Amino acid sequence: MEYQFACRRVCSILSQRRKAYLKTLSFIRAVELEEGGTRAVITADLVTLSSKHVEEYETLWQELLREFEEEDRSLSWQFKQRLVSRQPYYEGYAIEYAGQTQGMMLIETQNHWSLFVRGKRIVYVEALVSAPWNRVRIQRPPEFRGVGRSLMLFARRRSVELGYQGRVGLHSLPGAVRFYDRLGMVQLELEPEEIVDEEENVPYFEYMGLRQEGEEHEGE
Predict the structure, then answer these.
(1) What is the domain partition of the chain in residue ranges?
(2) How many CB atoms lie within 10 A of CB 188?
(3) What does pTM read for this prediction?
(4) d(CA 202, CA 181)
(5) What is the CATH number of domain 28-218?
(6) pLDDT tens-digit profile of 113-165?
């Protein structure tokens, strides 16, 4: 009996340690956001996408997104999470503060190519969303500012880590065009043969490589 008790105790300790280890694996880096009203800087966590974030999207976000007829109200983050778990080239991330999901992003890292530099890969942002309470269209002032910007900065960091020199591209929903403009992304016109279907015939933005940006500024 004592032996069985000891084994159960050891197994429990190992299980707790494993959970703690897995928890540390999900944490990637700290990011800074601003409180919407006071503009005070707070530190949030950038973590890997999990079922917790997807559940919060469905139970806490989606009703508000539908009520305010937001363009991203019908996204399936369950499907996106499955992509991350089954396809090695998809990566999912979320920003948390005080245990609550503040934003999410899905990127693809191998199968999209730059329109600035032909033949060069980019990190492609498949989807980027901020919580309803962080959107000025829904709440003024928003609870937090800087969620989307922090996710985009991380997408660019991943591009650098992968050797893509900071190149990032995405198709923007019409309501987000000004946001990507303010981030300094360049809107590019797609050639007819580059439009695979009508859903892709929406504004396309890209960050050029960091080296290219430096060369452009030198020539100004």
Answers:
(1) 28-218
(2) 16
(3) 0.82
(4) 15
(5) 3.40.630.30
(6) 999 998 999 999 999 999 999 999 999 999 999 999 999 999 999 999 999 99
